[in-house]
Amino acid sequence: MILLQSPSRYLLQILYNRVQSLEKGVELDSQWVEFDDIRYHIQGSVKNPNVLLLSVSLPIPPPETVLFGGLPLGALEAIKAAYGAVAQILDPPRDGFNLTLKLNLSKLPPDEEQKHALLTKIASVREVVMGAPLRAVLKQLVTRTVPSDLGKPVALVHRPNESFFLVPQADKVTVIFPMRFNDSIDTVLATSFLQEFVEARRTAGLNNAPPCLWSPSPPQELTEAFTEALSANAGFVSFVIFSRHVEGRKLDRTVWNLSTFHAYVNYHVKCSECFMHTRMRRQVESLIQALDRAKPDPEKAKKNSPNRSFKRMTLKDGNNSLGSRSWK
Question: Which spans does this entry mark as compositional bias, Basic and acidic residues (predicted)?
Answer without folding.
Answer: 293-302
